[in-house]
Protein 1
Amino acid sequence: MSAALAANDGLDPISAQPGAARGRPPWALAAAKMRLWTLHPKYLDAAGLVALWREGLLARAVLRGRTKGYRHHPQLLRFRRHASPRVAINAYLRVVLIEARTRGYAFDPTKVGPRYRGVVLRATQGQLAYEWRHLMRKLRSRSPHLHRRWRRVRSPEPNPLFLIVPGHVESWERRSGA
């Protein structure tokens, strides 16, 4: 299935998660693996960008109170800390949408709320560096051509919504040896 088709299949962001057939609720796998990257989405491979879109839509549903699962996922803290969490997640999704359009993907823009300018989220240098190492590990095995393209980058760009400040990996991060 192409990334464009997968991203615009009209399904709820959690409805097509693998693992549901093995007796797990669909949201369980999404919640366990969810990542709302601090990194600019340009660094993601097709699978990563589609996953980010779906996970962002799931986060949006949670912040809108439209789902029971996933409400306490630590990745949502940065959005909840914003004065207007729903505006923040919509702005985040809009950046993902712009990257998808750049690649020719057909993500559904009606799934993103109104456009607001001036939305800023804070993230630490340590978080950005942690995510970069994590992504490089993923790309090494999943998309070696992108790993070769990006491996020499020493200061990756964040998603434009993020203001990077000094600091360590965020306390909410679930670390996995990166």
Protein 2
Amino acid sequence: MYHHLAPPRSARLVKERPFVWIGCHGINPSAGTRQRGLRSGVMGNHRIALAEAPEWELRDDARRIDRTFRFRNFRETLAFVQRVGELAETEGHHPDISFGWGYATVSLSTKKIKGLHENDFIMASKIDRMLSS
């Protein structure tokens, strides 16, 4: 059974500042406006955000993050991919996923801004929490 996750906010980000969720296409659904991502800042912003999901790695000149998950067999891998897909639909933020026997690689970026946004790191953290539950 899948648990509905709380609104897309990590505990640390909620404490520090207000948060505006945008989908992977760069739209704030409640305001209908486009948002800018972390690429407008310095690389340090990415490293700070990556602290929210330490198992993930920056790729493509900090335009995306990814993580490879390992499993005992194809059935476990496929179940994980299905859960990530359900989470993505719920959150409106869709990763690229490649998988095969015993592994799944999840890659996150915000397509509309062609780079990383705070939401990518929050989604990574949610995927990590989902795996541990």
Protein 3
Amino acid sequence: MNYQPGSPFDSIESAYDFVKILSLVVAETKQDIDADIKRESALKLPRRLDALRVAFYSLEKLELHMNKSCRILNDLRSLRRLLFEERKGASPVSMQPKPIPVAKPETAASEFSSTLPSPASQPVAVSDHAAAA
């Protein structure tokens, strides 16, 4: 097979665009065939109706394959961008965890001491088991 520059498959993006357009055309054709099936069902032409139903079934299968192909091409685009760091404004993923800053205990305690009531000012609940003992 000879390479022809300017073909719809020069890159993953152009192949994705091509398959996306093809899937839209398949969906439109499927709607047209469905309208033909509804129209032909009233005319009592069984062979023509059967042929339209086979065409509709084949278009359904083709539509599923086109949708799968679009998803696969999209995944390939994402993987290529990730591998070659082509994402705009994205920094490479680091496998090292970032350190979490830890507050000093004396500052953390002083912050909370003003908001918490003192233990002596709170009433102590006595349970029935403790009162019986």
